[in-house]
Amino acid sequence: DHCVITNVGTAHIGLLGSVEAIAQAKCELLAEMPTSSVAVLNHDNQRLMTTAATVWQGQTLTYGLEGGDLQGQLLSPQTLSIEGRQLPLPLAGNHNALNYLAALAVAKIVGVDWSALNKGLAIELPAGRSKRYDLPNDVVILDETYNAGLESMVAALKLLAQTPGKRHIAILGTMKELGKKSSELHQQVGKTAEELQLDALLVMVDDPEAKAIASGTATIATECFSHHEVIVKRLEEMVQPGDRLLFKASRSVGLDRVVNQFLKRD
Known about the structure:
The chain is an alpha/beta fold. It has helices spanning 13-16, 19-31, 46-55, 94-110, 150-162, 182-195, 211-215, 228-238, 255-263; strands spanning 3-5, 38-42, 59-64, 70-71, 73-76, 79-82, 85-88, 131-135, 139-144, 168-172, 200-204, 221-225, 244-248. Strands 8-9-13-10-11-12 form a 6-stranded mixed sheet, with helices on both faces. A 4-stranded parallel sheet has the order 1-2-3-4, with helices on both faces. A 3-stranded antiparallel sheet has the order 5-6-7, with no helix packed on it.
């Protein structure tokens, strides 16, 4: 048996109380593994690496974009260079490249040849998970409405900013289960959008904490909404040819309804 731990972040911090507690809970798995197992760990996540070292002294294979036993390099958002190979990524972006590296590490451990990956890997994901829609007039939707935490939200915003196009617009909503840290973490999302110099930000305020996203921005045109239908109408008014749109929030916010209504518009 082998173990893969891909990340330690803020997801479920409202339940566990701190990032340290989240790391300890994830690394409980390592403490139960046989000594003959291999732990596959994300080198780029320092909290994970530090915590894992306190409970696991067995064989470890690390991976990452910044270092590790298996270090990859992103040549583009869609192409990964690793051990002399250039592999097309099934999903674009740094965060997806890290997950792909984790899979490559497992393949290496169990003796699966990478050659079959040279032509690419096709995957099927449910709606709301890394789904891309290429619409008429060169409008692109990045649908990430299935769920959201701080780390995945930041990763999705970076992917939006890296997606070539004329304007980059984020339609965001609440990240759930963040407890006392909720307002602070939502504000960080707004600051990230500001740093990435997005062109517009639309926020679905189903929860007071979501307003903190808007408070993290200073120069971005930001609008808040309390009804899904109003967001759809606003998008119909504002979207122009060449725009890139990201939709992301926790599942219960229901931004998937906005995506579906916008896709069905005349």
